[in-house]
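Q: I'm building a small set of examples for a reading group on sequence design. Run inverse folding on the following structure and report the sequence directly after it, with nothing in between.
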């Protein structure tokens, strides 16, 4: 029985365990679109948390890049997301 008191079909388990084979397609519409192999490869890497030391290294590199782009040596240069 499921949570509504209805009987669960016997074939449910086998259906849920059957893998879905999706052939590779070229998506030409406005979205979703195909990912580049580099993006797919990076998605398989371990997740980096916002408090990991490696994340702070990335932030430092972004800061250096922003300081170069805006030609500043201000130590409070930050990359901040926000609307507008």
């Amino acid at each position: 029985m499921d949570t509504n008191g209805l009987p669960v079909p016997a074939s449910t388990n086998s259906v849920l365990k059957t893998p879905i084979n999706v052939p590779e397609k070229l998506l030409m519409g406005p979205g979703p679109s195909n990912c580049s192999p580099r993006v797919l490869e990076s998605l398989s890497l371990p997740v980096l948390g916002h408090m990991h030391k490696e994340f702070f290294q990335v932030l430092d590199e972004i800061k250096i890049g922003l300081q170069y782009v805006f030609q500043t040596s201000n130590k409070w240069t930050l990359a901040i997301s926000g609307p507008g």
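Residues 53-69 form the longest helix (17 residues).
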